[in-house]
Specification:
The chain starts with a helix and ends with a helix. Strands 1, 3, 5, 6, 8, 11, 12 and 14 form an 8-stranded mixed sheet that branches. Strands 2-4-7-13-9-10 form a 6-stranded antiparallel sheet, with no helix packed on it. It is α+β, with helices and mostly antiparallel strands and about 230 residues long. It is globular. Helices cover about 15% and strands about 35% of the residues. The protein is built from 4 helices and 14 strands. It has one domain: Sandwich (Jelly Rolls). Bound molecules: calcium ion (CA) (3 copies). One calcium ion binds next to strand 5.
């Protein structure tokens, strides 16, 4: 009986919303010379900003098709490379976008560090007030160590913000990625194919779902109580 009720509630309460692409960066044609620090999304709507890294520490490097979506990276081998860990610990990149009409964003991207001197404590945080207050989210990312141009499946990173209601239906969402833990000047971290997907915003209200669930719960409780109620009285 309880299983049937749980199934019923799940049916009644699931929004059935599909994930939609909010913003995507593939670093197509990212350039060593005069490296951009502001990048419009290649699909969807969003702006990636790099703060702190000088041009001399920003490069393009061999990327991957892992986590690539439409449009494809025309050069297929472009990723962004962030160097000189000793000089840039504490610097960050951030993704700004709107979640109006959306909730439960999921962030995915591929990343690796060239060697053990690369940034290995990279912390995501989020803001919904235009970038004044940031809230740390999840464990710090220690990217897989991969020398040269190789990529493996271990390079795919996911940060699932599902259930972070503070982000739901917000006009100004910023996800910040702060680089730390690096040493030396030669190491670098490489990032490619950043995606943010989210589901349709569902207005939280005492919905049919909640009322029905309450009713079903009440029914379950009364059924549970009835057989032995005489023994207790
Ligand atoms: Ca790419
Ligand atoms: Ca550069
Ligand atoms: Ca710096």
């Amino acid at each position: 009986m309880r299983r049937i009720l749980a199934g019923l509630m799940l049916l009644l309460c699931s929004s059935g919303a599909n994930a939609a692409l909010i913003a995507y960066w593939n670093f197509d044609a990212y350039s060593d010379t005069a490296s951009a620090t502001t990048l419009a999304a290649n699909a969807g709507v969003g702006v990636l900003t790099i703060v702190g890294f000088p041009d001399a520490d920003l490069f393009q490097e061999a990327g991957t098709t892992t986590n690539e979506t439409i449009p494809a990276d025309l050069l297929t081998n472009q990723a962004i490379s962030l160097r000189n860990p000793a000089g840039n610990n504490g610097d960050y990149l951030q993704l700004a976008f709107s979640l109006i009409g959306f909730q439960d964003p999921v962030l995915t991207y591929v990343t690796k560090k060239s060697d053990l001197n690369g940034y290995d404590i990279n912390q995501w945080s989020y803001s919904t007030d235009g970038g004044t207050i940031f809230t740390s989210f999840g464990a710090a990312v220690d990217p897989v160590t991969l020398a040269g141009t190789t990529w493996t499946s271990g390079a795919l990173v996911t940060r699932d913000f599902t259930g972070v209601s503070a982000l739901s239906n917000q006009a100004s969402v910023i996800l910040r990625y702060t680089f730390n833990g690096g040493s030396g000047a030669a190491a670098r971290n490489i990032i490619d194919n950043i995606q943010i997907n989210a589901t349709t915003f569902v207005v939280p209200e005492p919905s049919t779902c909640a009322l029905l669930s309450l009713g079903l719960f009440g029914l379950a409780m009364s059924r549970r109580r009835s057989p032995d109620s005489s023994a207790r009285s």
